[in-house]
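Lay summary. Proteins are chains of building blocks that fold into shapes, and those shapes determine what they do. In this project we predict the shape from the chain. Here is one chain we studied, written as its sequence of building blocks.
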Amino acid sequence: MSTDLSRRALVRGAATLAAAAMLPDALHAQAPTPETRAKTEPSKVAFRKIVINEKSDFECACGADINGDGKLDIVCGDTWYEAPHWTPHKFREIGDWGRGPDSSGYRNDFADLPVDVTGNGRIDIVSSDYASGEIWWNENPGPGDRFWEKHLIAKPGSAETSALVPILGKGIPCVLPNCGGQVVWYELRNAGPKPEWVEHVVGKEGAAHGIGWGDVNGDGKIDLITPHGWYEQIDARTDKWQWHPDWECNPGDLGYGTPVFDFDGDGKNEIVFGSGHHYGVYYLKQNAAGKWEQHAIDTTWSQAHDLILANLEKRQPPVVLTGKRFLAHDHDPGAREPLGLFYYKFDRKEKRWVKCVIDENTHVGTGLQITAIDMRKTGRLDIIAPGKSGLFLFENDRA
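And here is the predicted shape, written in a compact code that computers can read:
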């Protein structure tokens, strides 16, 4: 494909989008100056790449046992792919919004979250949508290829994506959307034929592009992290939070997810974030006076729109798994630069961050929901990487 594709051609479906990602002479924007470049090395984890659907243009995916056969399947957009041969089963209509000339490339599917909403042992799918502002779930009807009924949970406003976050602890489904106007989350309080979803409004101080979560102060509770500061959890079940305007992230367009961990071993947790629409992966660290300071990890690539904490390297601290989102906006800095899937780890001996490359310069990137899950029950985490340029599985053959 020639390198002078028009902007219109770039959004004419997944195949064209995927091809455009590797254009060597496409528009390149300048990375921040001075540039920060992490030490780069190949992944120490041996991954085997499997193409699930090279034409998929949905940006969210998860792993779950959809048909109850004991094997984890992949759900992405309007289709679930049956393991072990990844046979596609269309289970709902998403519509064509986002496709066609002069369209955004976005689809009406900004989250695919596996939850047994009805309590009958079958995995249902919770989703959210930016255009309609809805959060809903599709009910798994059991055997057969029937379409799944849609049930509305709430309409909190445009949510670019959502995630399952252990706000109330493990085992209690809590859905955290990124709504621009408010910080809000939803608790599945009672699963059953008539499930009870409870809306929890946290506040508006931190409402912005991007949100994350983690134990910021080390008290064992999940706090909520925004570009402008953080909400300390006092008692989430009764909606008690304390707002701390302790930082202003730069750039302020956080991706979704802010891995929180004591990466450098100093006894205090750091917060890693990515720029969803500009260049860079960064971290926030407390100085000796207890003030938060921002530091660059890697500013050589743009659109780190999704970041998760994952135990990829066995017997080692968790790492930050992320990658370049293809055309987060088609006009973003570096939007058409090469894609990649990476993880970052902190070398405590050398006291610096290391970038480990899983895949680069192919059709593989990350969309809005990257998933690290033990798909084959090997004790090792595999990676599901969806995006506008295809759906891929990376099987972990050696951690």
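What the prediction tells us: The two ends are 37 Å apart (CA to CA).
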